[in-house]
DNA sequence: CGAGGGACTTAGCAGGGGCAAT
DNA sequence: ATTGCCCCTGCTAAGTCCCTCG
């Protein structure tokens, strides 16, 4: 217990958390920060050791030899898969005599030989799943287009019983431990639980198990696509008569257009944005464009505009909305659901797939991040005339809103989007695409992790190569090698070139400039230290001091010779060049794969290192979060400390103190009871002692849980775990870990994540290795 | 090549819903 | 039942990478 409450140093990484504070956050709120965590070992170094073993057989292979070996592997793999398929089909036939072996087992080409094969003990489960899938695919074949849902429900009742028994056998423990003791009657509890399970099952059955199907040929994303088109932002609601903008102290009535734009500004009055010079200027320029001639004549100075009445009005409206009666809120909720039902889904290859963003972005003032030169500009209202619809030829083409036309309707099945438009601030294209739980996104995600896994086998060779290249005669090669070293070791982003003045001044690896690094031949007892300080994506500050290899250090000195502030550190390098090189080292390799690879491999290692089999479930979860945190630190995923952080931390602390008191009290009571029992030795008193004992135990457990929570939260103050969880960590690592330690998956992944990673949850067993 | 555009992933923030404590 | 708080979800900006064209 005690070790849990100790501040545990971050087991890896050279990142000093305390120093990595978002610049803007610093300004906004320079509160006390947690003490910096001790920097320990070098992650890349650890990995090197780990993968060293594999090196032997790969060493000295030419690319040609290697690819030959690869194809051989593939062939082997295919053989294996064929066998698997056969087995699978066999087992199907055994169960369903009318089966026409409709299941096609997915053959994942990039799958590695170390992909976890199904364990024997799990056969029962596997088969159950297959049964389900078989039935599903059967119904899939039957149903076509419109009647999809009905067909589905028809096949359901039969299935349900079967699965229920299966499920019941499989997950009773988990389900029960999930439920928290409520003050409900036993029956109510059971009923609610049954409903929950039923719902879960239903969802499970509706799920398209695309990962068991064969992939389409290259480039084809779908064969049938039908949808309702996007949902447009509601029209502007004019201000109430008595609410005015004041100019130079005098009330003004604006034209509808100008008023709408003014309202965007007024609504943000309590936001820092409206105090920024650039934001105000950009807004004013664009606002004036919407004004009538007369308005333009009058309103010439933003400083003379008083929006407070409008601001108060909107604030009041918000308040009103919040305080609406239950029924009204329910009604709104229902309406939203109806909307989602109508616009939120599409039919893709005869499966109902959820759309990620079916609502068109409403007009607003552009909120660029960091020092964005375009912040405050008006993001215009999007009309159907701006929208390109993409769907299949034989689908029902979505209707534009009455009186409107689409810009274009096209039938391009090599792309995944359903609709697109060009946004006016940056001139970029925006899309309506599917939700993360869709086949299209899932398949890509899976592929991403498979490429990252493939890198595992090439990493050593690649590292060796770039180390050799540190000494290359060619400047280009040297720069490329050092950049790659940073990308690999520090998980930096590639760093594309950006047009100056179009967005905030942020950089990645290839676009680093001289002023972003400082070289220290010696610092704090370490040699060859590089200090990084630059703004990365989203203007999040990257600050890090890293000891590097001597050769790297020398090279950096060389690269910086005769350069001044503003000059590129890697002047002979850019991302296409780097990626082209990477492509030659391994098919599908690009700079970002290193981030995925290093994130996932770090999680796996950290989990291995931190998980103590003896510990309780909450302690294990803390270990998981710590492993996750190590990755988040590596990838520099930050967040603003929650506004109520200090407050809620203090609350938790006082609760812990209260718990401690309670334990003392309980212990005292126990002691007294014991004493009494010793003296009198009655049955009854012994029982009392027992119950007191249990009470102490219970309270201690509660305390422990709280303390774990407290450390977890403290360590998490300004680190965002979600980004890496969602985008960088192979979900199969987490699923396998949960299975191995019988930790409920829902403790790690919430509903959204479980949905997104359904493929991984379905296919992963405890022995998965990234 | 190198600019420019297109498609798709990755990112943090705001606000609301839902749940636990009172 | 009410309140307070936390997490989830939706939103959309900001990246990466690829393709095309001159």
UniProtKB/TrEMBL annotation:
Domain DNA topoisomerase I eukaryotic-type, first and last residues per copy: 365-742
Entry keywords, A to Z: Coiled coil, DNA-binding, Isomerase, Topoisomerase
Enzymatic reactions: ATP-independent breakage of single-stranded DNA, followed by passage and rejoining
E.C. no: 5.6.2.1
A Gene Ontology BP annotation from the UniProt entry: chromosome segregation
Gene Ontology, cellular component aspect: chromosome; nucleolus
Annotated region described as Disordered, given as residue ranges: 1-196
GO molecular-function term, one example from the UniProt record: DNA binding
Coiled coil regions, renumbered to chain: 315-342, 649-716
Keyword Oxidoreductase: no
Keyword Heme: no
Record: active site: 728 (o-(3'-phospho-dna)-tyrosine intermediate)
Task of the protein: Releases the supercoiling and torsional tension of DNA introduced during the DNA replication and transcription by transiently cleaving and rejoining one strand of the DNA duplex. Introduces a single-strand break via transesterification at the specific target site 5'-[CT]CCTTp site in duplex DNA. The scissile phosphodiester is attacked by the catalytic tyrosine of the enzyme, resulting in the formation of a DNA-(3'-phosphotyrosyl)-enzyme intermediate and the expulsion of a 5'-OH DNA strand. The free DNA strand then undergoes passage around the unbroken strand thus removing DNA supercoils.
Family recorded in the similarity comment: Belongs to the type IB topoisomerase family.
Name recorded for this polypeptide: DNA topoisomerase I
The organism's taxonomic lineage, starting at the top: Eukaryota, Metazoa, Chordata, Craniata, Vertebrata
């Amino acid at each position: 217990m005690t070790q849990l409450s100790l501040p545990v140093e971050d087991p890896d990484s050279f990142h000093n958390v305390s120093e990595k504070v978002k610049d803007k956050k610093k300004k906004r709120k320079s509160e006390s920060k947690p003490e910096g965590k001790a920097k320990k070992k070098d992650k890349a170094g650890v990995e090197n050791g780990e993968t060293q073993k594999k090196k032997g057989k790969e060493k000295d292979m030419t690319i040609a030899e290697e690819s030959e070996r690869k194809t051989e592997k593939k062939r082997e793999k295919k053989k294996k898969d064929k066998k698997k398929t056969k087995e699978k089909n066999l087992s199907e036939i055994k169960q369903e005599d009318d089966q026409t072996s409709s299941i096609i087992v997915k053959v994942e080409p990039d799958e590695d030989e170390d992909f976890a094969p199904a364990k024997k003990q799990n056969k029962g489960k596997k088969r159950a799943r297959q049964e389900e899938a078989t039935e599903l695919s059967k119904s899939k074949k039957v149903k076509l287009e419109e009647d999809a849902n009905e067909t589905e429900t028809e096949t359901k009742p039969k299935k349900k019983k079967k699965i229920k028994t299966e499920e019941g056998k499989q997950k009773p423990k988990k389900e029960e431990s999930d439920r928290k003791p409520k003050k409900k009657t036993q029956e109510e509890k059971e009923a609610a639980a049954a409903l929950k399970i039923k719902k879960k099952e239903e969802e499970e059955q509706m799920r398209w198990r695309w990962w068991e199907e064969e992939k389409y040929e290259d480039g084809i994303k779908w064969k049938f696509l039908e949808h309702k088109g996007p949902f447009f932002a509601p029209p502007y609601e004019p201000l109430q008569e008595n609410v005015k903008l004041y100019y130079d102290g005098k009330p003004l009535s604006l034209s509808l257009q100008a008023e709408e734009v003014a309202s965007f500004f007024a609504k943000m009055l309590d936001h820092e944005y409206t105090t920024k010079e650039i934001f105000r200027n950009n807004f004013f320029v664009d606002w004036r464009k919407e004004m009538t001639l007369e308005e333009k004549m009058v309103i010439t100075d933003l400083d003379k505009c008083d929006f407070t009445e409008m601001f108060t009005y909107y604030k009041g409206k918000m308040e009103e909305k919040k305080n609406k009666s239950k029924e009204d809120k329910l009604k709104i909720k229902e309406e939203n659901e109806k909307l989602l039902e109508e616009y939120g889904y599409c039919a893709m290859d005869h499966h109902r797939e959820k759309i990620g963003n079916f609502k068109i972005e409403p007009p607003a003032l552009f909120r660029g991040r960091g020092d964005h030169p375009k912040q405050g500009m008006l993001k215009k209202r999007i009309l159907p005339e701006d929208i390109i619809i993409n769907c299949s030829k034989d689908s029902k083409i979505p209707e534009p809103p009455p009186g409107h036309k689409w810009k274009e309707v096209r039938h391009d099945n090599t792309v995944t989007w359903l609709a697109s438009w060009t946004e006016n601030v940056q001139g970029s294209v925006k899309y309506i695409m599917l939700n993360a739980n869709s086949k299209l996104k899932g398949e890509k995600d899976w592929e991403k992790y498979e490429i990252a896994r493939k890198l595992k086998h090439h990493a050593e060779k690649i590292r060796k190569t770039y180390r050799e290249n540190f000494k290359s005669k060619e400047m280009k090669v040297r720069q490329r090698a050092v950049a790659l070293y940073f990308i690999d070791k520090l998980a930096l982003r590639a760093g594309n070139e950006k047009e100056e003045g179009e967005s905030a001044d942020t950089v990645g690896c290839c676009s680093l400039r001289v002023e972003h690094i400082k070289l220290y031949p010696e610092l704090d007892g370490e040699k060859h230290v590089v200090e990084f300080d630059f703004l990365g994506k989203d203007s999040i500050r990257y600050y890090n001091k890293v000891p590097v290899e001597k050769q790297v250090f020398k090279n950096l000195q060389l690269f910086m010779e005769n350069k001044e502030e503003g000059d590129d550190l890697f002047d002979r390098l850019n991302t296409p060049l780097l990626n082209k090189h990477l492509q030659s080292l391994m098919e599908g390799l690009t700079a970002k794969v290193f981030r995925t690879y290093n994130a996932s491999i770090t999680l796996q290692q950290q989990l291995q290192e931190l998980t103590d089999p003896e510990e309780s479930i909450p302690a294990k979860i803390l270990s998981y979060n710590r492993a996750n945190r190590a990755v988040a630190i590596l990838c520099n995923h930050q967040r603003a400390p929650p506004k109520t952080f200090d407050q809620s931390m203090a609350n938790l602390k006082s609760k812990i103190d209260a718990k401690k008191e309670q334990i003392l009290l309980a212990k005292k009571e126990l002691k007294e009871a014991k004493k009494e029992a010793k003296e009198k030795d009655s049955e009854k008193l012994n029982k009392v002692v027992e119950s007191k004992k249990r009470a102490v135990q219970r309270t201690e457990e509660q305390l422990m849980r709280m303390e774990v929570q407290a450390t977890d939260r403290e360590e998490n103050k300004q680190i965002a775990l979600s980004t890496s969880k969602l985008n960088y960590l192979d979900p199969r690592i987490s699923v396998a870990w949960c299975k191995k330690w019988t930790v409920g998956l829902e403790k790690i992944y919430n509903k959204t994540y479980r949905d997104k990673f359904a493929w991984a949850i379905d296919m992963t067993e405890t022995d998965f290795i990234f």
